[in-house]
Amino acid sequence: MSDSPAADGPRLRPLALLALALASVWILTGALFKLLQGSPALLPKFMHELPISVTTLYPLVIGIELAIVGFAWLRPRQGWALIALQYLAFFGVLGIQIARGEESCGCMGKNVSLAPTTMLAIDGTLFALLLISRPWSGLGRFVMPLPVAAIAAIALFALPHFVGRGQAMDPSQVRAMREGASGAGIDKSPTADPDGAASRSQDEAQQMASAEPAPGSASSEAATTHGATQPQAPAPSPVEDVDEVVAPAQGWTIIAPEDWVGKDVFDIDLAQWVDVASLPLDGTWILYRTTCEHCRDHLIDVTNADDGSELIGLIRVPDPGDSPENRIVHIMPQGGHVMHVELPRGVEYVVTTPADAEIMGGVVQAAREGIEY
């Protein structure tokens, strides 16, 4: 048997095609998950810190992956190198995520959580198989003419900018969706205000805030799982009254608390989604999710420190799939000085909770996002 490259070429071709197919389909799977089910929240956290907006970056990332796969299928002899480069980029991203201790790579959409180490093992195996198959000699020179492959790649690159969930949702779309639901007789109220706090005037709320917390309230008892005593029977949380399973989101939008600093509360992005006049214009706002461990811990700490002297606005960020069964936030400040709102459902909000903002005279003085414990 000859050991010459000419003799090896035909024998390696099936393995090379298989390796290229597996590697490219894996990339395509992740791209389609992000295109059809994801949002910029899936991007690694360090990408949110880059100077380019994640609104721009998200469809760009999807488009690159789709374009590389399409070109590789049409021109495998050249395209395999682009597939290999894409995997090298994946290794770099996963390495950063592992170093930062992130729990999910976000590669396969929100509903499929894979640890960066797990994804690195899968990607590494596919990359190794691709190289072992010697695609530079085991694949045909071309399937489609270069101009055709190039045009197809450009079209695939542009696709996320026009279809799927590559673009942000705006409040007018949510209003239309809610009006349709209302016409069908479905109550889709965006606010959660069981105590009526949001309907009170700022002056009335301030007067109530100066009163002593009611005996037995969560604000008057220590409530914590780390450093303080858990109350024996905490008062019902406002989220108890609004918790049914949250339906899948129709799109996404970005809420950026750190961009609020120095702005009037009526000029920030949040004002497009909720009536900020129903929140304190002097006090603290807290954005939380009911399934967020850091939110639970932060709200427990706030509850421990709350003496009723400061107005607090609690802003629930609903997530698709929220339900009474997966809710872990049960303790939060309560009383007349606490105002509750909920962002409209049907939207996935790209914001790392818990987040908070200090408001003075209707102007944001400071804001934080992704408070960790």
TrEMBL record:
Biological process according to GO: methylamine metabolic process
InterPro entries listed in its UniProt record: Methylamine_util_MauE
Subcellular location: Membrane
Cellular component GO terms held in the UniProt record: membrane
Bilayer topology: Multi-pass membrane protein
Segments traversing the membrane: 15-36, 57-74, 80-99, 111-132, 144-163
Pfam families the UniProt entry points to: MauE
Record protein name field: Methylamine utilisation protein MauE domain-containing protein
Lineage: Bacteria, Pseudomonadati, Planctomycetota, Planctomycetia, Planctomycetia incertae sedis
